[in-house]
Amino acid sequence: MQPSFLHRSLRLLTLACLLVPYTTWAADLTITVTDAAGTPLPDAVVWAEPSGKATLPAPGTAAIEQKNRQFLPLVSVVQTGTSVSFPNRDKVKHHVYSFSPAKTFELKLYSGVPSTPVVFDKAGTVVLGCNIHDQMLAFIRVVDTPYFALSDSTGKATISNVPNGSYTLAVWHYAQSNENTLFEKALGVKADEQTAVKLDINTSALQKR
Ligand SMILES: [Cu+2]
What is the CATH number of domain 57-144? Predict the structure, then answer.
């Protein structure tokens, strides 16, 4: 390599490093979810769906365990196309199923980890149950975006590194009176943003764990 070429390359690299910190390409969206009375709501699913066609990263994998005759976690959010495994950590067998239109399936009475994960290929709400243990209940919200988060015990959810652009921000909670009612709002992402959302929640439908 010619020394002058190396020198020029180093100069360009230095210039690029100087410019990058002054340009924001992505932002963090913080959404605080409460009920109508202002009580923080954990386990709310929030997501930002790109308007129009966007090149999205390929969906990954997720797992929902069965432990002490409960599903863990209670609420999951996955990108459409995600493969989800259902490892059974209990000594008793489970029979996991869903009748939801977004994914109707069953994993007949099994122990350990089923060899084939379930692919969630359609956006929507999937309610999980177990044929043996009626109290077992869990929810999967399947969304057409990799930009999603779940609210914590303070009702706060942060979607990190959302590329600049136009989105629809949506919020869903399993204890909504109508499972299809979503909060939706158009959002132009340019910089970090904070949004507060109040949901019409039936607090008696909140799962105690
Ligand atoms: Cu079970």
Answer: 2.60.40.420
| Class of 24-55+147-209 in CATH | mainly beta
Provide CB contacts within 8 A for 8, sequence distance 6+: none
Q: Over the stretch 192-208, which tens digit does the pLDDT of each residue have?
A: 989 999 998 877 888 88
- Long-range pairs of 84-92 with CB within 8 A, sequence gap ≥ 24: 84/117, 84/118, 84/119, 84/120, 84/140, 85/61, 85/113, 85/114, 85/117, 85/118, 86/113, 86/114, 86/117, 86/118, 87/63, 87/112, 87/113, 88/112, 88/113, 89/65, 90/66, 92/132
Determine the pLDDT at residue 52.
85
Distance CA 198, CA 152 (A): 15
Provide the residue ranges of all domains of the chain, joining segments of one domain with +: 24-55+147-209, 57-144
Q: For residue 80, report the distance from its CA to the centre of ligand 1, in Å.
A: 26
CA of 68 to the centre of ligand 1 (A): 9
pLDDT digits (tens, 9 = 90+) for 160-176: 999 999 999 999 999 98
User: From ligand 1's centre to the CA of 133, what distance in Å?
Assistant: 4
CA of 203 to the centre of ligand 1 (A): 26
pTM of the model: 0.86
Q: Is the N-terminal amide bond of 73 cis, ω within 30° of 0?
A: yes
**Separation of alpha carbons 82 and 51, rounded Å:** 21
